[in-house]
Amino acid sequence: MKIGVLGTSMVGQAISGKLAELGHDVMVGTRDVEKTQANTAPHPYGFPAFSVWQKEHTSVKLGTFADTAKHGEVVFNATNGTGSLEALKLAGESNLNVKVLVDIANPLDFSQGNPPSLSVSNTDSLGEQIQRAFPNVKVVKALNTVTAFLMVNPGLVGNGDHTIFVCGNDAAAKAQVTEWLKGWFGWKDVIDLGDITNARGTEMYLPIWLRMWGALGTGMFNVKVVR
User: Is the pTM value of this prediction over 0.85?
Assistant: First the structure.
C-alpha cells in the first residue's frame, strides 16, 4: 500500500520505519525538503535527524507535505500538534479528501516550558479541529496515548497486553484503522470510544502520561482497561 506519513520526528520515524519494514511504499512529508535533508543534528530528546535516520531506511522517501498526502492511500499525521492544522493545509485538502487520516498528534504547548500544557482541551480537541477543517477527510484519532516505540511494537511492554484507543465519525474508517493497528503493529486490545469528540479524552490523558513518564523515568509503559 502507498502510505504517507506527515512529520519527520520520532513518531514519524517510528511509523514510517515499521510500515516500510512491512513492505509498504512509504513517503514522509516535511515542510522544507532541502532543509530536512541538510539537517544532521540529533534532536534534544536523543533521536536522530531524519537525514541520518533515512540512511538506514533507504526505502522511505521524503517529500513535501503535499507530495506525501498525494502519495498516500492512507495518511498518518505525525506532526507537532500545535502545527498540525498548518501542515495539513500545506498538504492540501484535495490531496486528503475521502482518505483515512490517522491522527496521532497531541496539542502539546511547550511555550511555558515542561511539563507542557494543552493548547486545546475540555470543549474541543485537535482531532475535532482537523475534522472541522477537512470535513471530507475520514479522521481517526489513534496511537496518541503511548510513546513512539510502543505505537508500532506494543509487545515491548507487558507482552502487548494493554490498551489503545480509536475514535472518529466514520465507522468504516475506524474498523479499517483497528484492523491496521492489529495487523501491522500487533495491538490486541483496541477500544472504539465513539465519535471524534472523544479525542478530547485521549488528548487530555497526556498531562498524566507525561507525569508518569517523569515518575517512572521512561515512556515505556501503558494502561490496560480491565473489564
Answer: yes
